[in-house]
Request: fold
Amino acid sequence: MLKMANNAIERYLMLFLPWALSWLFKSDPGVSYLIAWMGSFMIFILTLTGWVKPLPADRPIAEQLMRPLFIVQIIFAGYMCCTSIFYYLNVIGFDNFHLTPYFKIDTVKLELTAECQRYYCLGHAAFVSGILFFMDYPVKTKYYIENDKLANLLLRIAVLSFPVSILFLRIPGLSQFYFQLSSLSFISGTLALAFAIPLKKSGNTLICSCLYIFNFSQALVSGFKEPIIISVLVLGMFLYPSYKKLVTIIFGPALILLFLVLPSYVNSFRQNAWSGQETAEDATAIALDATLNNSDNGESNWDFLTGRLSEIDMFSNFVESTPAKVDFYGAQLLFQSGIAIVPRIFWPSKPITEDLVMQRVYDAGVVSKYSNVSAKPAYIVDAYLSYGGLGVFVFLFGYGALAQFISKKAEELFGGYILGTALIFSGLFQMMWRGLSFEFLINAVFWSYISMLLIWKILRSRKILKEF
Reply:
């Protein structure tokens, strides 16, 4: 027994080996960066193959992709740790993948880039350790839903949750529930579509297709890349268990294409729609035309890859100023998060969360308080600002543990993976796929958990969820 425990500890420690090696080579920032960056790919391999801890055996892997080890790690850690490579190439003199002749490297900037990547690698290892430590399947469930009613229930949730979300949008102080239920409606409709197609339910397929097209069109006029990518990614993941080859052939290239063309599309859309020059519909048409005709596509794509794709430049600014110019915040950000949880309808004079978050951005000199720019720090940045490297380890481990706990609780309450993780966890807690500033994330997770319990109560009272 002791030997097995030691073996398990050694496997967890292997996750932190890339971070340790990158720290040992910190005197050479280029090598240190690459070790840390490639280390995240090593962490993906060790965890997604089941080497550190065996993968859940209660379902085929293709039918549990929405669990935290898969979807949350791939999106959250993948975005956090892997997208900085283009920024690094830019720092060492690359422009549009071509090395600039006689380029003089800014050594301070390179060292900051390597230091931030080391924190990313440490955070990734801690985050996935939190998931694995609490990952225990199968989950014991007390409730169930009859399989023949599942497809129709998903459709009903999709249709009902959207108008309810609009209602919350119109009630002062409760607009955050709009985002929860809007996301739940999208996930439910997409999941219902993935159920209806293989079951050959023509009516359900038609309705769900209309819902999906509507949601995708809303994503196109949002002015942001993430909703568009998520729309395609989620549909592909839900369809994958039934159509593995087809999804791989179609959705893989589609996602790559989106990453290539979306920067041009979004830039063009914002220039026309956000300036008030065009309606959203006209701006969409103009943006699509500009993208298809490759108008300034190369330049905007490189700017996107080296700037907006990764948040490492902002992280570097925070690391440079804290604690050299601004002291660590300690528990202050957690205290502010507690304030953010209180709904404004009960506390009208509550401090504005945006102002609380942006104050540390101004203090660090990331942006000027007189500029009309929102540059909210990511979760790992707030972890660093709180307690430095120790904060990165503790808060990222807690992040993974919390995601795993909520997913398991959802499966326990809603009768298993389909309703629990695929619908409720993915719908109500989608903010955990990306990670936000402490105040926004803790507030959203707290009230999403309350919403989850309320939905469970409703399904139980309606006898939709039945007790064993």
In short: The beta strands are 94-95, 98-99, 143-144, 466-467. Residues 2-467 form one domain. The chain has a mean pLDDT of 89. The longest helix spans residues 379-413.
